[in-house]
Design goal:
Layout: H1 2-13, E1 50-54, H2 55-61, H3 66-69, E2 76-80, E3 86-90, E4 98-102, E5 105-106, E6 128-133, H4 137-140, E7 147-152, E8 165-173, E9 178-189, E10 192-203, E11 213-214, E12 230-231, E13 245-258, E14 261-275, E15 305-320, E16 326-343, E17 349-369, E18 372-388, E19 397-412, E20 415-430, E21 437-451, E22 456-467, H5 471-475, E23 477-480, E24 485-488, E25 496-508, E26 512-531, E27 543-544, E28 556-577, E29 580-582, E30 586-601, E31 614-623, E32 626-635, E33 651-663, E34 667-675, E35 699-707
Parallel strand pairs: 4-7, 24-28
Antiparallel strand pairs: 1-6, 2-3, 4-5, 6-7, 8-9, 8-35, 9-10, 10-13, 11-12, 13-14, 14-15, 15-16, 16-17, 17-18, 18-19, 19-20, 20-21, 21-22, 22-25, 23-24, 25-26, 26-28, 27-28, 28-30, 29-30, 30-31, 31-32, 32-33, 33-34, 34-35
């Protein structure tokens, strides 16, 4: 990839002088949330909780997976399955309840099927990452009942590119001896624009604190984390075995931009090969211990690895004043060819997952009718999912969905009201003898944003969203070794309903920025996995072998998808104060942030892998070309656990960033970053393998980027 990207960037910048930046502050352009239905709408204008990660904050947060990149945002956590895979968790929801978009359209991968399947989008490509916390099913369909993550890049330029520009960067992270090289460039020829980017990342096994690989033989149910015996990692380097990764990604896009709008095409390729730590597919016949145990797995060297490949084709169109009565038309069409193969420890290919997907989306903004402005839209998704191999616990299923939606807003002085409706039909058609299922869902929303003077506003969102069961929840039958369960689907599942209330208070002044959000979500017929005691009625959860045969000491927990009402509630808060503004001492901005969420079934039992509460302090400092950021986060102990779930000890994480920018016609940015500087043992409670795969030990990152 370097031979394509780097020469373009070097040629483009070879003539640019570099000098120390002056003291003039840069005036930043307003940040628009592209995932919102109305154009040029910022975070503060939304009726629902929205976060946009952009600029220096995004540069500090970038990581190999989307889950790790967003991990420290309010209300968001990472459900990592080792360094190579990271799901996004929003307010305790993940998988089929959180929709990940690439440029406003679904990623069309298999990341919702299993937590060891990575999301097939590259965070280093993003110009900004938008998060809609809470239900967004009205805009984006079934998979967005818990929230949306939209990765926005410039693969298809939407504005004229008048001169060549781009970036070229390199990052080294000693936490995994990781070397990342990346670059992108854009140039225009008249009204024709071209975008090219590429990335190569190679990492070794992750460095972890000594003694942080938990001995599962001692991890008995109900035992407090500090009482659990921990073994030292093998070898003097304390590396997490089978956690190395290799990633290559590139994109080529072009667009024609005119006064009437723009039209463009792009092709994106994403290849990654990563290990799954603490996870093997070969098992001893005799296995003792609980779910998550891997000490008596087969003796073969190495471990399971995943080879993931996706080729994605995008076409986008935007037209201003397309028809009488309409001011804007946006359209997008995506074709995706996705496949990933699980490589056995022997090196032989095992189960192969595929997803050939197509998604079409069209939105039309109508002209104002009095004080009323609105967007009408249609979304169509056709996905052919397949799984072939001994561990294909989900059959081949074709899923089609068609949704139509409308959102209207009414502006009345300081109050803006917004209401919306979505009708959607989802059809699952599996191969074999399984019956097809068809679902019709209705989602409604009502929201308001009221300005409390020049610096404050309050936003309220009330919604009722429905989700059709996924194909996995309906049809799965077989061993799911990533989670060490034997999954059984349920053809009797009905639509899941989320009734949600969000209230957000914003204050944005010259020196103080603050936000406080509280939410309550009442689920009707919440779909979850439940253990049973019917195969071998002995007062203990049923366990089976890989064939599904009941055994008292079977290696897999027998689980079946079922439904029950559930309740989620929580809050997110942030406060930032410009405490000192001095030409001599620089600008000092301390920060305070916190979030919490709880999730329980109606019978009072906690749901598993709920994000623990967090509170943190931060400090931003900027003077001329120097910048620093310090973050101290306390993650509390999670002891409100589900049946068979172990507790997770709290920890304190200290991170620091120091940057130096040399700027003239181009900017040369040097970064020195420290992660987990206290060398704490970090376990993400949201992870299925938190015992076998702890977070990185104390590490240092050095990076350099040329931005032109």
């Amino acid at each position: 990839m370097n031979r394509y990207v780097f020469p373009l960037a070097v040629i483009a910048t070879s003539h640019l002088p570099v000098a120390v930046a002056d003291e003039q502050p840069l005036e930043l352009e307003p940040i628009s949330v592209t995932a919102e239905p109305f154009a040029d709408r910022g975070e503060l204008d939304s009726t629902r909780p929205v976060d946009v990660l952009v600029g220096d904050a995004l540069d500090r947060a970038r990581a190999a997976t989307l889950g790790e990149t967003l991990d420290r945002q309010p209300g968001i956590a990472n459900a990592g399955f080792g360094p190579g895979a990271g799901r996004v968790v929003i307010r305790g929801q993940s998988g089929p309840r959180v929709r990940v978009l690439d440029g406003g359209v679904g990623v069309l991968d298999a990341s919702t099927v299993s937590p060891d399947h990575n999301i097939s989008t590259e965070p280093f490509r993003a110009r900004q990452i938008e998060v809609l916390r809470g239900p967004a099913a009205l805009l984006y369909g079934n998979g967005a009942i818990g929230g949306v993550v939209n990765v926005v890049s410039d693969t298809i330029p939407t504005e004229p590119v008048e001169q060549i520009g781009g970036s070229l960067g390199m990052r080294y992270d000693d936490g995994a001896e990781a070397l990342t090289t990346y670059g992108h460039t854009e140039f225009g020829i008249g009204r024709l624009n071209v975008h090219l980017d590429g990335l190569i990342r190679n990492t070794d096994d992750l460095k972890i604190p000594a003694g942080s690989v938990r001995d599962e033989e001692e991890a008995h149910e109900g035992e407090a984390p500090e009482e659990v015996h921990e073994e030292h990692a093998e070898g003097p380097t304390n590396r997490l075995e089978n956690s190395s990764t290799e990633t290559e990604s590139f994109a080529l896009g072009t667009s024609w931009v005119d006064d009437w709008g723009h039209v463009g095409l792009a092709i994106t390729r994403y290849d990654t090969h990563y290990g799954v730590p603490g996870h093997a597919h070969e098992h001893e016949e005799e296995h003792e211990g609980e779910a998550g145990h891997d000490e008596e797995h087969g003796e073969e060297e190495g471990g399971v690895r995943i080879d993931l490949q996706q080729t994605r084709y995008d076409a986008k169109l935007e037209i201003f004043d397309p028809l009488p009565g309409f001011t804007r038309l946006r359209g997008a069409l995506v074709l995706s060819d996705y496949e990933h193969t699980e490589i056995e420890p022997s090196g032989e290919p095992g189960t192969v997952f595929g997803n050939d997907g197509t998604e079409f989306r069209l939105e039309a903004t109508h002209a104002p009718i009095g004080q009323l402005t609105g967007v009408l839209g249609v979304q169509w998704v056709d996905a052919d999912f397949s799984a072939v191999g001994e561990e294909a616990f989900v059959p081949t299923v074709q899923t089609r969905s068609l949704g139509v939606f409308g959102v209207e807003e009414w502006q009345l002085n300081a109050l803006r009201l917004e209401a919306g409706l979505r009708l959607e039909n989802t059809d699952h058609d599996p191969t074999g003898n399984q019956p097809a299922r068809d679902f019709s869902t209705v989602s409604l929303s009502l929201g308001g944003n009221y300005a409390l003077g020049d610096h404050a506003n309050v936003a309220v969102s009330l919604s009722r969203s429905q989700r059709a069961p996924s194909s996995q929840e309906l049809y799965s039958l077989g061993p799911h070794l990533a989670t060490e369960t034997f999954e059984v689907g349920n053809l009797d599942l009905t639509e899941e309903v989320a009734n949600n209330l969000d209230v957000t208070l914003h204050w944005h002044g010259d020196r103080v920025d603050a936000e406080l959000t509280g939410f309550v979500t009442r689920y009707q017929d919440y779909i979850y996995q439940s253990s049973t005691d019917s195969l071998l009625p002995d007062g203990e959860p049923d366990r089976v072998d890989e064939e599904g045969m009941a055994e008292a000491d079977g290696e897999l927990l027998y689980v079946r998808y079922t439904q029950q009402d559930a309740n989620f509630a929580g809050a997110e808060a942030s406060l930032s104060v410009l405490a000192l503004q001095s030409t001599t001492l620089g600008n000092w901005r301390p920060r305070l942030f916190a979030d919490t969420v709880s999730g329980e079934l109606d019978n009072g039992g906690p749901l598993p892998r709920i994000t623990p509460s967090r509170i943190g302090l931060g400090l931003d400092w900027q003077r001329l070309s120097l910048g620093a950021d310090l973050r101290l986060t306390r993650v509390l102990t999670q002891d409100d656990t589900a049946e068979l779930e172990t507790e997770t000890a709290g920890y304190t994480r200290l991170d620091a960033d120091l940057t130096w920018t040399v700027r003239s016609a181009a900017a040369l940015v040097f970064g020195l970053r420290g992660r987990n500087l206290l060398d704490e043992t970090i376990r993400d409670h949201t992870s299925f393998i938190k015992d076998q795969s702890p977070g990185v030990a104390r590490s240092v990152i050095v990076d350099m980027a040329l931005k032109f």
